[in-house]
Write a structure and sequence with these properties.
Layout: E1 6-7, H1 21-33, E2 38-40, H2 48-56, E3 64-69, H3 77-91, E4 96-101, H4 111-117, H5 123-132, E5 136-143, H6 145-154, E6 159-163, H7 172-181, H8 184-188, E7 192-196
Parallel strand pairs: 1-2, 2-3, 3-4, 4-5, 5-6, 6-7
Helix pairs in contact: 1-2, 2-3, 3-5, 4-6, 6-7
């Protein structure tokens, strides 16, 4: 995975300002041609997945796609499966490399958020079914450090993504999350931590 990835939130539409579709597709292709092979998006980033799908049309290189679904109280495995089906259609791919429960602090604080998404018949059960079917390679969570750390401690997830906590002004992920990623149990399981800025 390239050290620098491409974030698809910028293509979320009005919340991030206007953009030209052709320019967006060119920018994505330019990043890929420049050696970036990790693209982060979400089902909830407006037309982001569709634009990435257009940019990937005819692209023969390796590319790691991470997409996300927002959790909600009462979300079922079927909801997750349907959401990923929409993502795969938009991206024009038979599978995604990484699927994350997005901003899990939306459904609770700390371990409570993790318990919510791990409920039997819920979101993560859908993620696991998609893994078994080959439509998702790795599953994980994104969110604030407290919730991501609680998820990592369960050992249930392949990937943990935290944002805005490893930059020039805030290094909290170094002590709180990267230390956990380096422990023997997590690193030997070939799991990964992504820090998003």
């Amino acid at each position: 995975m390239s050290v620098i990835g491409l974030g698809g939130a910028v293509y979320a539409g009005t919340s991030h300002g206007p953009f030209n579709e052709a320019d967006a597709v060119d920018a994505i292709r330019g990043a890929l041609d420049g050696g970036v092979n990790y693209i982060d998006t979400s089902r909830h980033y407006g037309p982001s997945e569709e634009l990435i799908g257009k940019a990937l049309t005819g692209y023969a290189g390796d590319c790691i796609i991470c997409t996300k679904l927002s959790p909600r109280q009462g979300a079922t495995a079927a909801d997750a499966i349907a959401g990923v089906g929409e993502s795969l259609t938009a991206l024009g791919r038979p599978y995604v490399d990484v699927l994350l429960a997005h901003d899990i602090q939306q459904v609770g604080k700390g371990a409570t958020a993790v318990e919510t998404i791990l409920q039997r018949g819920g979101m993560v059960d859908g993620f696991r079914q998609l893994q078994r079917e080959g439509r998702v390679r790795f599953i994980g969570v994104s969110g604030r450090l407290a919730e991501v750390n609680a998820a990592v401690e369960t050992g249930e997830f392949d990937v943990a993504l935290s944002f805005n906590r490893f930059n020039l002004l805030d290094w909290s992920a170094e002590a709180e999350l990267l230390a956990e990623a380096h422990n023997d149990d997590y690193s030997t399981a070939r799991k990964m931590v992504i820090l998003k800025q």
